Amino acid sequence: MDPFRLDGRVALISGGATGLGYGMAEAMVEAGARVVLLGRREQVLRDATRRLGDATAFERFDVTDTAGAADLARRVEKRFGGIDILINNAGIHDKRAFVETSMEDFDRVLRTHVYGSLALTRAVVPTMLARGSGHILFIASMSAFIGMPKIVAYSTAKTAYLGMVRSLTAELSPLGIRINGIAPGWIESEMLHTAIDDDPERKAKILGRTPMARFGNPQDIGRAAVFLSSDAAAFITGAILPVDGGASIGF
């Protein structure tokens, strides 16, 4: 068997119908996985599954509904026989000055990124433990490594993923579950354009510190996710892989 393939595996991707999530879903379908997309907007989910084909399905779900995560996991497991891969990707952006960031703003971002991913992870881990295998992937960000203004809530949430990856690796990898993260650089997406379209100085600064001098695309993240979820990465756990065109080390 090709160790880079995902044939026979089921992947659950939060925020999977758009942007980076869609890029990962597309790559996983191409690698042979069955993919379940999670999101809040039913029509967007329907459109994405139609484009991706018969190997995909969707569940309308808001990751901030932490109490509903266990029921969601049971529905998906009953429908597909188990979840082999969980990708915690759903997120929201909040660009505003620190002094204008209210506690409610901060809490809203953390509930989506941190609480949402923790609840989904708690929901899928028992079945993975029973099987003795599984892969959980957290989509972090360059803002977990680089100080950037006006995104204190987002940066805090993404930095929390680094601690979650390390702690869960130490606890769960001896039991057969691998935990990894991807730290995307600046990738063409709706979220990116929300952040930079009205800020040409910020766009120039980003490109100026990226050695490859361009933005990435969702397929770059998708292929990295496939690799980390495949048997080709069987001895990789606890890693945070930058996929950033060199931005994390650029000057």
Keywords:
globular; 45% helix; seven-stranded parallel beta sheet; single chain; Rossmann fold; 251 residues; 8 helices; alpha/beta
Outline the structure in words:
The protein is α/β, with parallel strands linked by helices and 251 residues long. It has one domain: Rossmann fold (3-Layer(aba) Sandwich). Helices cover 45% and strands 15% of the residues. The protein has eight helices and seven strands, in the order βαβαβαβαβαβαααβ. The protein has helices at 19-30, 42-52, 69-80, 103-131, 152-172, 190-196, 200-208, 218-229; strands at 10-14, 34-39, 56-60, 85-88, 134-139, 177-184, 240-243. The chain has a seven-stranded parallel beta sheet with strand order 3-2-1-4-5-6-7, with helices on both faces. Strand 1 (10-14), helix 1 (19-30) and strand 2 form a beta-alpha-beta unit. Helix 4 packs parallel to helix 5. The longest helix is centred in the middle third of the chain and has 29 residues, at 103-131. The chain is globular, with a radius of gyration of 17 Å. It starts with 9 loop residues before the first strand and ends in an 8-residue tail after the last strand. The mean pLDDT is 95.
